[in-house]
Amino acid sequence: MVGAGSKVGGKVNNPTPIEAPPLEDPLRKRTFEWGIERRKGSFFTQILRSLAWTWFITLLVWQNPRAKHRRVQASLTFWLCQILRRLKRSYVIDLGADGMMICPPWSALACVTAATGAHEPGEQNFIEAFIRPEDAVIDAGANIGFYAIPLAKRGASVWCFEPSDQTRKALEANVALNGLGDKVFVCADALSDFDGEAHFTQGLDVQNHLVVNGSGSGSGSGSGSGSVSGLQKTRVRTLGTAWQHDKHLFGGRELALLKVDVEGQDLQVLQGALSVIKDQRPVLMVETRLGGGETRALIEALGYGSYWFDAGRNTLIKFPDDWKGNYKFHTNVIMVPDEKLGSVRERTATTSGQKATPPKVRFRKNSVP
């Protein structure tokens, strides 16, 4: 099935395909669904769930396109990093021209990146092809810099929002390691649809999230009083408020991309970012759940289309309107303003020429935040 493209002489030119992403590998799907809840059940059940989760991550590495011609080496590197994690040893990933990253032992994603160079190869291929040195990027949920460091090394300016104290400290260490203090701006605020205070979870690695009024999602004023065990108090702002006060950080650069990876708060973050989206019209890459129907509807009403990037064909594919996700795992949706679709496709068809370098792992004696 294809969608409408640009019209030339009454004919449709280069129509955009409309397809659902390939169905998730059944074995990987099953191991994810069972292993994601590995802390539930009896002791024996938890062991089995942990083994399922381990197998799921191993499959992610083995099937990663960037490891296609070195799968055995990538798998061995992954398990070496897993051993280092158990020993509470940090290590450094050398990504060549894309920079170096100090990886703390609590980071699970770092092991996948160390083995393959990208834990989300399709999305990272798209962003690396799309972004140019003159561009500005906002990274909401920046983690330790998996996207921010390579993009800044390629010349882009990146404004990172990372509320977790532990994760942000590691991000700042990576910014310093690469000498990117003039390219990467790190902010401790959480983004949502209100200005105030709330709490943020700690110690959950990539599953850390904002807790508003006692739950992990919602809107309204935050629960800013008192001390909550295992949580940290965090200032919350809308992106509209943050942009109004701090957009000077970009020195007039165009906001080309807004990346949102906020563990279920994507709708709230985008509702708080509507003024920026309407003014700047950036490309969005948003992690959603169950197809992200509400999120897609909110942004598509502003004249956007929702796509996924097929790295094999090097092209954007439009999601079917009724698509609701393949399984419980997240879906990254790329949203492009209708008026910019042609230029985005042109950019991604003609890459910047900088190829991803197979990662190397270097060991450290000292610990990392």
Counting DSSP E segments of at least 2 residues, the number of strands comes to 17
Low-confidence region ranges: 1-12, 217-229
How many strands, which pairing sense, and closed or not: the largest β-sheet?
Answer: 8 strands, mixed
Number of H/I helices: 12
Please identify the structural class as seen in this structure: alpha/beta
Shape from CA axes? globular
H/E element string? EEHHHEEHHEHEHEEEEEHEHHEHEEEHE
The proportion of strand residues reads 15-25%
Radius of gyration: 20 Å
**Helix percentage range:** 25-40%
Strand order of the largest sheet: 7-6-5-12-13-16-14-15
Terminal CA distance reads: 49 Å
Mean pLDDT, all residues: 84
Blueprint of the fold:
Blueprint: E1 6-8, E2 11-13, H1 26-35, H2 43-62, H3 71-86, E3 91-94, E4 100-103, H4 108-116, H5 121-130, E5 136-140, H6 148-153, E6 157-161, H7 165-177, E7 184-187, E8 190-191, E9 196-201, E10 210-211, E11 231-237, H8 239-246, E12 255-260, H9 266-271, H10 274-280, E13 283-288, H11 293-300, E14 304-310, E15 315-318, E16 331-337, H12 341-349, E17 360-363
Parallel strand pairs: 5-6, 5-12, 6-7, 8-11, 12-13
Antiparallel strand pairs: 1-2, 3-4, 3-17, 9-10, 9-11, 13-16, 14-15, 14-16
Helix pairs in contact: 1-2, 3-4, 5-12
